[in-house]
Amino acid sequence: MSVPSQTIAPLGESIQLDTTTLTPFPNSRKIYVEGSRPDIRVPLREIQLSDTHLSTGQTETNSPITVYDSSGVYSDPSVTIDVCQGIPPVRAQWIIERGDTEVLPQVSSNYGKNRLNDPRLENLRFAHQIRTPRKAKAGHNVTQLHYARKGIITPEMEYIAIRENQRLETLRETDLKNRHTGESFGASIPKIITPEFVRAEVARGRAIIPANINHTELEPMIIGRNFLVKVNANIGNSATTSSIAEEVEKMVWSIRWGADTVMDLSTGKHIHETREWILRNSPVPIGTVPIYQALEKVDGKAEELTWEIFRDTLIEQAEQGVDYFTIHAGVRLAYVPLTAKRLTGIVSRGGAIMAKWCLAHHQENFLYTHFADICEIMQAYDISFSLGDGLRPGSIADANDAAQFAELETLGELTRYAWQQDVQVMVEGPGHVPLHLIKENMDKQLKECDEAPFYTLGPLTTDIAPGYDHITSGIGAAMIGWYGCAMLCYVTPKEHLGLPNKHDVREGIVTYKIAAHAADLAKGHPSAQIRDNAMSKARFEFRWEDQFSLGLDPLKAREFHDETLPKESAKVAHFCSMCGPHFCSMKITQDVRDYAQNKGIADVKIAVETGLAEKAEEFTTQGAVIYR
Amino acid sequence: MSVPSQTIAPLGESIQLDTTTLTPFPNSRKIYVEGSRPDIRVPLREIQLSDTHLSTGQTETNSPITVYDSSGVYSDPSVTIDVCQGIPPVRAQWIIERGDTEVLPQVSSNYGKNRLNDPRLENLRFAHQIRTPRKAKAGHNVTQLHYARKGIITPEMEYIAIRENQRLETLRETDLKNRHTGESFGASIPKIITPEFVRAEVARGRAIIPANINHTELEPMIIGRNFLVKVNANIGNSATTSSIAEEVEKMVWSIRWGADTVMDLSTGKHIHETREWILRNSPVPIGTVPIYQALEKVDGKAEELTWEIFRDTLIEQAEQGVDYFTIHAGVRLAYVPLTAKRLTGIVSRGGAIMAKWCLAHHQENFLYTHFADICEIMQAYDISFSLGDGLRPGSIADANDAAQFAELETLGELTRYAWQQDVQVMVEGPGHVPLHLIKENMDKQLKECDEAPFYTLGPLTTDIAPGYDHITSGIGAAMIGWYGCAMLCYVTPKEHLGLPNKHDVREGIVTYKIAAHAADLAKGHPSAQIRDNAMSKARFEFRWEDQFSLGLDPLKAREFHDETLPKESAKVAHFCSMCGPHFCSMKITQDVRDYAQNKGIADVKIAVETGLAEKAEEFTTQGAVIYR
Known about the structure:
2 copies of one chain form a homodimer.
Chain A lengths: L8 H6 L13 E7 L6 E7 L4 E2 L5 E2 L4 E4 L23 H7 L2 E3 L6 H8 L16 E3 L7 H6 L5 H11 L7 H5 L17 H10 L2 E2 L14 E2 L5 E6 L8 H13 L4 E4 L6 H10 L5 E3 L1 H8 L9 H14 L3 E4 L21 H13 L4 H4 L1 H11 L2 E4 L14 H19 L4 E5 L5 H14 L5 E4 L11 H15 L3 E3 L12 H22 L4 H13 L3 H7 L3 H11 L20 H15 L1 H22 L6
Parallel strand pairs in A: 10-11, 10-17, 11-12, 12-13, 13-14, 14-15, 15-16, 16-17
Antiparallel strand pairs in A: 1-2, 2-5, 3-4, 6-7, 8-9
Helix pairs in contact in A: 5-7, 8-9, 10-11, 11-14, 15-16, 16-17, 17-18, 19-20, 20-21, 22-23
């Protein structure tokens, strides 16, 4: 994949966003709920539903359903999108107002300076302008955790409370009643999320708000076991494929399908410039694994990595606005030999790099020994830790072994240290785990890391289905989400085989939205079942359009329906293709219900009992069923 | 879809089996393991693996892996397939030898006679010849359960023991050692399955062998919690679409991807003839829901159904060779009003039909009152019950409600009655259930039905993803399989939207094979992890071809890999597309391992500890990590 290199314009122009990402889904519109100040405008998606036609001939209105919306301004037709300008900096004023940050005279990292001054990169840089970065004033800590502990409710926190509630307060009591209470394994999700609840959870360390002060374009979101389960999508070029334009398109495509955060895992050329384009256009938190880029800077030779190169990379990325860093500080020298007898050794890229470095130098992991220094950088830009599980199992065989759990204990230690520095932390988890060992992972993480949010990849529940690893892992993801995992890192059908294309990304994200929602339902999240109930009612009433609208992927639902019954008239027909026009169980059920209603349920019951009484003797003499 | 109507030949000729179904997967070959007599020849699939190239320059052989094979003779290149002849009747001699059955002078059902004598159907009938059916001699019971209780080990039982073992006995002790012991929730799967164990489980009612004496083409298989979890695929035409040829192709296609049984749920035209073609070509058990056909016979008017029509339908299908019948005898009159307040009423087709009948007549369900009569028919042909869950929930909202559990209690009662008559029974289950309510379903079924095999549809764990219901339900299927469910009825991506095409069937079955295998792994099935381990080893060693071969869908795995790296050379390259040639975590891990091996792990440990000791003071003075 070559990148255009003649003029400045072409790169921005070459970014062609899919029209799907630039329009609301059918029968949906973007709404904004305003908070306590006019610049807190929280985007949600309102799904309009059609009326129910009762058998009496009357109609009944179905209230619109409001759902969480991660798709950003792209799906707002009133906003003109220009990727060369980036999206609106919704947080800019909040950060300025806090008065604890300052604009730097220039970027601080050596690498950032070099890239900025390299004339050969002119045509690759973010087209609008590289903003001069902002940093905490000397002696200040600008993390949301720091504010939370001081009792301050930030606009970010209020924004999140509105966002998580999904206008639950507008629903009738009856809408909320018809739901299962769930089993939350110790999570405690309140009926209504208040800004104070958000603050308290962040202060407790049980939730994080990944929100770098240099990522002003961010629509704030939260990750924690007492909130909706979130989904991360990975993008990123590699040495073999992909370009900057493709990565920006992938990011916008990912949030369209519901990704709550996006990790840029680029390892190829122009990582720095790619990241700038992504951040300026991303309404969701962007995470990275800085060691990947650091490794590029030493030509892929792990043993040549140094703290200085790594530190410069952290600052370079911090000043661009990366919201969370995966840091593999738990891969301690002493744990590396524990992996030697594994079936699949170390499969985490970051883990493998650090293991190699440790052995090459016979020294403790420099990410561990410099953890305090890293925390200082995190404080100054409000970057959240995503403590990497570099020793996660790479196969069913290696699940829950000594190496994995030794690292997890160290991650707990690092969590507590970061908390002492008021730095936000989540903890990464596996990987490949059979069903019966998943809960042990979650329970141990909750214990060792004192409820810091868990963020897992899958886990895959079997290794024998390459080409379907979104499914092998979606099973594990649903379960660990139920048990308490706060964010699920998606897996695409191409996992272990190749780089995902757009189709794969969509499949992977929707699969993980299913897992996250199934977990929310099982935990008894107060708003989760509303959408299921609306779908089920639409299904029962043959409101086909509403079934499409309410689905996680309205376009595919419609496309699949139309494959069998393409005619428009079929979308209002009281039968579906499975049964045909003369025979449909749902129609028969409606008859049963009408019957019960006409007679009154009590009457039917009496009739039934009378019938049974009459039949009783017959049964026993016939011997149809012997006992009871 | 019109069916050819000019000559006899065209229908058979119009059945075009996909070439995929007529060839073994790459690097796989069909093997037959012979039992105690030469006509017990159990098909298995042997996957050949390539050598491991060690870093020392030596090579290491990887033993072939033997796996279960449901694909029948279609994937045996030495067998010439002629759908007009049907496949070889492997069981014919065993049935004759038992001497307890007789060939009838003609088919017994009125409907069967009429169809046979209708000249307009000449061109639709199974091309070879309609075999005259066989039935138990008067006073005889020919069920596998009856034999089992008499202490007889049938050839079917021996066949199954060999099949379930997958040549486990040929493996080295070390291959078997590296596995998780699992959590089986009370299942007890022996290390080696013996014919006596099969007999004992059948005698106990804990497993069934669906094997109609008129389905001589059957390769026997078993359904029970102490055996491999099985998968069912549904096929069947409807009034709106599909032809006989398509249904035969779907059946062959289904078993190619791993379906262990196939249900023919046809509701359209020519159900009788379609079934004949399917049975004569099917090596797997065929299940049906006879009430569907009975309903066709009364032009879709449920209230016009009678026991006589239903009985004739049972006999008609019994004499064709159907192996198990879904019978909705648990939909009792008294339970119907319990569904009136549901969000989605009665969604089971069979359940809706019987509910309508009950209310129309104010009478108890005739399937319940005639249950003893039905048992008599089941005994005479060895048809297994699949007790239908006509009141299963059709939505998350309705899961685990009074109607569902009332019916389940009745299914338990019916199970015990059928067992008294030496008739084999499995019990059907939901449906739509949130994660946290799945186990209650399984536990209650085990209790109420005294461990009779459970056979569930999914369950779907959320309702909001039409177009992805293979995934919403695959999650639930894996979990209920782990908890003890014996067979999982697949769901395709088209569920709730339309009729599945070939692509959907493949997606649905592979998803369910994943769920079944994940369940086997978690239960600690002795042979389950062998394939995962072989895959993981191949993955670690960059043996790409072996990864494809070992997967549930070798063709898709290869296709996905080649999308990114199509060159043949890439298949032996020590890197994959995710990381590129200069950077690969697995390669680094190998370096780590080589290092550890060169130094000796003990040495490395000492080095590590020495290193740590040296570093200890430094850590504390630096204050990198404060406590411990």
